[in-house]
Amino acid sequence: MPPYVVDLRSDTVTRPTAAMRRAMGEAEVGDDGYHEDPTVNHLEERAAEIFAREGALFVASGTMGNQAAIHVHTRPGQEVICETRAHVFNSEMAMMAAFSGCIARTSWVEDGILTWKHIATLLRQPAENRAATGLIVLENTANLAGGTVCSSEIAEEVCQRAHAAGVPVHLDGARIFNACAALGRTPVELTSKFDSVMFCLSKGLGAPVGSMLVGSKSFIQEARRVRKMLGGGLRQVGVLAAAGLVALEEGLRSIPEDHENARFVADALAEVEGIRIDPSKVVTNIVVFELVAAGLDAFEVSRRLAGVGVLVNPRTHTTIRLVTHRDADRAGCERAVDALRRVLGASREAVRSG
């Protein structure tokens, strides 16, 4: 591996900042199993305050937070409505089935954002011969759809109509702060109608580990019990929560720059022969593009890029995802684009000469 690496596989690859490391080393701790870790308590209070909720819970990962929420909101034998590319359906090891006894009922939407029009066709009321809808899950931003955003208007309509039908709605808000930056809205404005919200500290905010689950007092009490079932009973975890507190303050500052770098990459890739991308679709820090030239698939392109110090994430044989973040500056993004241009150019020449 070359000594200089531009890692655009995900915004989870960021390293803790000096301020985070200092806070972790100096963190006051206690046993969170007894609710006695003051740093965790402070983080949970701060998260609840930011989202104007009664309570919050620190969890090890976004998957743990989402699956705890699904378990609290549903009962075995129910269906969970989500978009076909939703993280809860594609990237959480079928846990809604394995742990909560639920199955996903999905709909593919062009931009990855479910609206009530899509949900209404999937909604199932209790009947003797079919499973009922137990929960609706929206995702903001929509990761595998290219970081698209769900507006407050869409979210409010979905929640209002779902609640009228007696169905709760959970938000997988892993990158909700990216959505806030893109739309110019606050977390409360984008999430207030949801029954529960999960957001990640370790993605756009840059903390080394951890996510938060927010909701009502009774929801958080039950989610804490479910977290224990998932092996998430935590002890002197203030050393991790301390980094999360820093991330909630300093991590927000780099998000607009991440978005600018993603748009730069998208605009530059649109000029590269053999790549198909619509730069206008890139509104946050995720860039998904398609390879349309013969000769190399996405996995081979990824392998060759790694050989020159650029790491990307092939999603299918024809699509690649790039994610900008605090540790990938403009120069690194330029290097990645140049490397892609060279790899694809060399492939075209090989095909022509062969």
Secondary-structure map:
Elements: E1 6-7, H1 18-26, H2 38-50, E2 55-59, H3 62-73, E3 79-83, H4 87-90, H5 95-98, E4 103-107, H6 116-120, E5 133-139, H7 152-164, E6 169-172, H8 176-183, H9 187-191, E7 196-200, E8 211-215, H10 217-229, H11 238-250, H12 255-269, E9 275-276, E10 286-291, H13 298-307, E11 310-311, E12 313-314, E13 319-323, H14 330-353
Parallel strand pairs: 1-11, 3-4, 3-5, 5-6, 6-7
Antiparallel strand pairs: 2-8, 7-8, 9-10, 10-13, 12-13
Helix pairs in contact: 1-11, 2-11, 3-10, 12-14
List the keywords.
14 helices, 7-stranded mixed β-sheet, alpha/beta, Aspartate Aminotransferase, domain 1, 354 residues, 2 domains, globular, Aspartate Aminotransferase, domain 2
